[in-house]
User: Fold this.
Amino acid sequence: MPTAPVTMAAGRVKASPLAKKIAAQAGVDLRLVRGSGPGGRIIRRDVEAATATVTVAASPVTASPAVAPTVPGVEYEDRPLSQIRAAIAKRMPLSKAPVPHFYVTSEVAMDRAWELREELNALEGQPKISVNDLVVRACALTLVSHPGVNASFQGDTIRVWHRAHIGIAVALEDGLITPVLRDCQSKSLAQIAVDARDLAERARGRKLRVPELSGATFSISNLGMYDVTEFSAIINPPEGAILAVGSVRRVPVVDGTGLGVGRRMALTLSCDHRVMDGAMGARFLQDVKRLLEEPLRLLV
Assistant:
């Protein structure tokens, strides 16, 4: 059966995130794929069909010696920056280049925190608690007792904040934004869970208010949901630090009773060396670790 002529799509290609991911893995140019979704949107089955066609055409074992028609290849494409990606491209060099970063990493035993979270989430009528909510609460309490970490470099002064306004990194399709959860030091774990979920949902729906996009005194970036063991985050100036959170992993552990299996999570604190030194960052991280390993303190 003859195939329909292939035309090059003009402008922005409309495709679902899953279709884009599959196309990138298979090396399929989405501009050469005809979408069957609503409004001509390219969906998963369209990319899979295009992938199957390419695979058959490339196979050395064919029923006919005839050469399959080839699709004109495109070596590359220049995609315009989205507003979010343009802002990231502008701000990150202002952080990574002039801000002298140093990093402190610690591994946290999450067994008790995991059990507490499961018990809290089993309570009827109560907000669901995420691992990130536990981390936010632990950081908020620790920032109160370590104000030197809740600080920013101001040229010839260091500004120390008395309240913990924590930026929560949210990944969008075209970039990363960090809405601000304000006054975390005075919020319960349940309130943090409710407010953080609301912020994230409105961030993904592009419904955030302007004041919610600035004014953080400290930030948290969590890639645990992507099965990332550990990573180092870039400080968002003028903040003095940001905490990178990895996934909670089940790993072999050795304790006083011998060899067993435990839940472990890596935390990496990125610090501005103009604001704090290694010992200050290490003490902060040590206290965050203690709160997570003794999670009942998060409910007080």
